[in-house]
Description:
The protein has about 170 residues and is an alpha/beta fold. The protein is built from 4 helices and 8 strands; from the N terminus they run βααββαβββββα. The protein is flat. The model is unreliable at about 85-95 (pLDDT under 50).
Amino acid sequence: MSKFLDENGLLYLWSKVKALLGAKVDKAEGMGLSANDFTDADKGKLDGLSNYTLPAATAETLGGIKVGAGLAISGGVLSAAGGGEADSVAWGNITGKPDVALKSDLTSVYRYKGSVANYASLPAGDSETGDVWNVEATGMNYAWTGQGWDALGETIQIESITNAEIDAMTEE
């Protein structure tokens, strides 16, 4: 069963959020979002990374790049050398028109036929694939598959979330 948050529930939830926000730790002046908890050695290593340069790629040092078929590295420069898989790709006819569905194609997928009192009242024969009937007793819609009736959907009851459920969701 689906539930929603009504106006009373929203007001109650907001009071819970405000209470939780009132217990948060505020930013301390001059501290940013956290204290510097690094050791001097760790901080020194991180400070040393400001001048870090990725090594030039060679056959022995990849420098963060993996060389694949048809590629070569010379003087730290990655180049397409030819002769790889990319040269043998068959593109075919790329100017052809893609398949599209027209509105007339889609309007015949389902055809609403009307309403009947209950499931037993659905037509036993004389139905075509895509015929749809509403069953008033349950609010369920059924479509004929060519072999039987397939349930498409029904009316559902939606209830509001209770304050007790909000309490359970917001407990620490």
